Amino acid sequence: MELLYEAATVHREHHDPNTVQVSTLLSIKTGGCPEDCGYCPQAARYHTDIEGNDLMTVQQVKAQALRAKASGSSRVCMGAAWRNVKDGPEFDQVLEMVRTINKLDMEVCCTLGMLTENQAKRLAEAGLYAYNHNLDTSEDYYKDVISTRAFQDRLDTIDNVRKSNVTVCSGGIIGMGEKLEDRAGMLVALASLNPQPESVPINALVAVEGTPMEDMEPVSIWEMVRMVATTRIVMPETQVRLSAGRTEMSREGQAMCFFAGANSIFAGDKLLTTPNPDVNEDMEMFELLGLNPQKPFIKISQPKTVEAEDSQLVPLGEKPKWTRPNHTIERNEVAKEKSKLVSKE
Ligand code: SF4
Which of 149, 154, 169, 257 is catalytic? Predict the structure, then answer.
């Protein structure tokens, strides 16, 4: 309860608590990926039911983006199951998709794997608003999840994105067998990026048959709420995205996540390849909770730049210098004032 109270307070200090961004995730090239991410049904080496698709055409993407806009999305995120971006006709096609969606007055995000500085700049010139590249988990646990590339490769790509004027979206997944320390370690790594990512997706593992993580226990809603709340506190200005795993959450559970500081969801019946709640169900939930979809290109706040002298973030293993604000004391003070008033009466 203390964690929730603190997270909700931070959230209200930095964001409109009744505005939630709705984004649509499109898988523009599905399956056949050479990587070995243990959670991913798109890895070619795992035997899953995923139907692979070649790169979509610009017209197909435009049609889907228009549909997403009509149903309230302000952002389209295009995902391709690639290890890294290769210069050539396929990348040129993606650049054209970015230009096309940009003209629809929607934010465009891409998640295409590892990226060079030059490729990030080309995407920026095409009008890309955000690039997603998740850290996935802590540096310590990373090698238990993926062996085909290193944690440092992730950081290098994020660094390349930062050299352009594209915003950074980076988060991770819980429920992959990691320890609590790994969840904290991931948040420390994200919150220590300077500046912090503008967007942080928090995913609950969707265990897909045929992947090495098929037998993982589902993440409880309380773990999700705790993760969202902690993310909100350590990255106050970031857009915290409630991502994969929402089909398993009740409306009450999602409401707790919004209260704890989540201010974005992904809409559409699929999240790349895993199930997601229906758009109409989401809109009903918004109405019930009094939430409004966020308009595109609204910069709610500037991402926090970590200044060395006032940084509250310290490397793992070192003791933090800051102490939690003691809201209990504040509330006791309020209670005392109230009782004074009552005794006067
Ligand atoms: S998460 Fe991305 S990089 Fe990893 S296997 Fe899936 S598509 Fe490939």
Answer: 169
d(CA 33, ligand 1 centre) in Å = 6
* Ligand 1 atom closest to the CA of 80, numbered from 1: 7
If you measure from the C-alpha of residue 111 to the centroid of ligand 1, how many angstroms do you get, rounded to a whole number? 10
Q: Is residue 110 annotated as part of the catalytic site, yes or no?
A: no
The answer to whether residue 231 scores a pLDDT higher than 80 is yes
Q: Exactly one of 122, 162, 232, 241 is catalytic; name it.
A: 241
Residue/partner pairs of 122-128 with CB below 8 Å, 24 or more apart: 122/91, 122/95, 123/94, 123/95, 123/98, 123/164, 123/166, 124/164, 124/165, 124/166, 126/95, 126/96, 126/98, 126/99, 126/102, 127/98, 127/99, 127/102, 128/98, 128/102, 128/166
Across 280-295, average pLDDT: 86
Atom of ligand 1 nearest to the CA of 33: 8
Q: Is 257 a catalytic residue?
A: no
% of the chain beyond a pLDDT of 90: 68
Q: Is residue 93 part of a domain?
A: yes
Pick the closest to residue 131 from 122, 142, 120 (CA basis): 120
Cα 195 to ligand 1 centroid, rounded to whole Å? 26
More confident residue, 300 or 14: 14
Q: Best substitution site from 25, 27, 40 to test ligand 1's pocket, by max atoms within 8 Å of Cβ?
A: 40
Q: Is residue 209 part of a domain?
A: yes
CATH number at residue 18: 3.20.20.70
The beta strand positions in 14-114, using DSSP E, are: 19-29, 75-80, 107-111
Question: Whole domain around residue 168: which residue ranges?
Answer: 2-318
Count of domains observed in the chain: 1
Domain membership of residue 215 (yes or no) is yes
**Cβ–Cβ under 8 Å, residues 205 and 213:** yes
Query: Would 37 be classed as within a structural domain?
Result: yes
